[in-house]
């Protein structure tokens, strides 16, 4: 004879049912390796953005020393240098939030990964906005150059706008990929 009451038997049944539910196992080692890889990639991109900003400011100072000063080029490079500086500062602020998080235990690794995915989506939005801002500025600059150039303007427009289109497509693909990963991570956490 068992000493279990009907309530105990129901509880045991519920516990057994709960434990038999399927769940998705996550390889924490793989997750931490992925975090390290993405952090290295993000730091590399940030480093390249800093170098590009320094290059643009150097180009601006070089253009300002030229005689005669090409006003259109100075305006274009100046906007590019200031825009690159703003872009790099915003990018740094997006990335630093994730980099400051600790990932020493599984829960923190999940939180850092989710924060990294949210930061990557913000970075993709920054990338998209910068493309929308770059497009009219580049087209204006090409138009200004065409006034003094004897070469056909169409190839320059096609190249510049094609490059911006490739950047936009890359940003959309990157954003969609990170949004999908964030949804999968949230599905794992929320069960």
Descriptive notes:
The chain is mostly helical. α2 runs antiparallel to α3 and α2 packs parallel to α4 (106-148). The chain has helices at 6-19, 28-65, 71-99, 106-148, 154-190. The chain contains 5 helices and no strands. It starts with 5 loop residues before the first helix and ends with a helix. It has one domain.
For the structure shown, list the relevant keywords.
191 residues, mainly alpha, membrane, transmembrane helix
Protein topology:
Blueprint: H1 6-19, H2 28-65, H3 71-99, H4 106-148, H5 154-190
Helix pairs in contact: 2-3, 2-4, 3-4, 4-5
Q: What's the helix-strand series?
A: HHHHH
Main sheet characteristics: none
Q: Kindly give the count of domains.
A: 1
The unreliable regions are none
By DSSP, the count of extended strands is 0
Task: Assign an overall shape.
Answer: elongated
Rg result: 26 Å
Helix fraction, binned, reads over 70%
> Could you tell me how far the N terminus lies from the C terminus, measured between alpha carbons in angstroms?
39 Å
Computed structural class: mainly alpha
How many helical elements?
5
Average pLDDT score: 88
Transmembrane segments: 40-62, 68-90, 126-143, 155-174
Keywords: Membrane, Transmembrane, Transmembrane helix
